[in-house]
Amino acid sequence: MRVHICAVGRIRNGPEAALIDDYRTRFDRTGRALSLGPLALHEIDDRKGGWEAEASGLERAVPKGAVTVALDERGDRLTSPELADRIARWRDEGAGDLAFLIGGADGLAPHLRRGTGGALSLGRMVWPHKLARVMLCEQLYRAASILGGLPYHRD
Ligand SMILES: C[S@@+](CC[C@H](N)C(=O)[O-])C[C@H]1O[C@@H](n2cnc3c(N)ncnc32)[C@H](O)[C@@H]1O
Questions:
Q1: Which amino acids does the record list as binding S-adenosyl-L-methionine (predicted)?
Q2: Which helix (H) or strand (E) holds 74?
């Protein structure tokens, strides 16, 4: 199952880019034996068009038929093993693509705040979109390490 992050805003250089690259590489390496990945990033321009343009950019970036999960602070608060279980279930049910959606400064348009795979919260506080992307990449790597039986996650 291919995994996608469709996110408003561009991250070029800096600490967030380095962390995202690191977790993405680790996810791809660990996921290969688990039929997970690669992890693709799709960035939507946040400089023109406002909310509606961002929403249609996100919709265009999502592969046809993908299970979609919105990142939203009002979403489901899962443990890391619960997220890993959900990802394994979508994979085992035959989903070809899994796409996570991250909004920009104004958040996701209301109709995108819950995907076909629900909404995922990283806690009740609001994080900058760049940090939300880093945290999601880390949780994806953590999920792969849990499913692969690696000693990275400790309860
Ligand atoms: C700066 S936040 C936007 C906050 C905006 N006020 C809202 O109502 O969504 C940018 C994006 O980061 C993600 N994000 C921020 N905090 C989050 C959290 N606690 N859980 C899940 N996603 C979060 C969401 O995708 C959000 O659209």
A1: 71, 103, 122-127
A2: strand 67-76
